[in-house]
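In response to reviewer comment 3 from the previous cycle, which asked for concrete evidence that the modeling workflow produces usable outputs, we include below a single protein chain processed end to end. The sequence was submitted unchanged, and the resulting structure tokens are shown without manual editing.
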Amino acid sequence: MFKLKYCEFTMSQAATKVMTAHVPLELADKVDQMASRLDRSRGWIMKQALSAWVAEEEEHNRLMMEALADVDAGRVIDHARVQAWAESLGTGKALKLPS
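The workflow returned the following structure tokens.
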């Protein structure tokens, strides 16, 4: 029996799922150029890009939830105080940072 060692799937390997997306030709060309320049596959480039985007969105969501918790707890600064502070910058009479 003929068995390819690299095709065996072990529990330590991450399961994968094939996903497809229609992208503009210009973007596809850029991905292909990057793959060629980096000597990587198109799939590797796409996985890196998608992983980075998902991480960024997760961080954005975490920060948003943190900010909303601050608002709910009353940890806010009045907009007029922040605006007055910002307008005082560079005038030689900068106000203290509102807190």
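The chain is about 55% helix and 0% strand. We consider this sufficient to address the reviewer's concern, and the full set will be provided in the supplementary archive.
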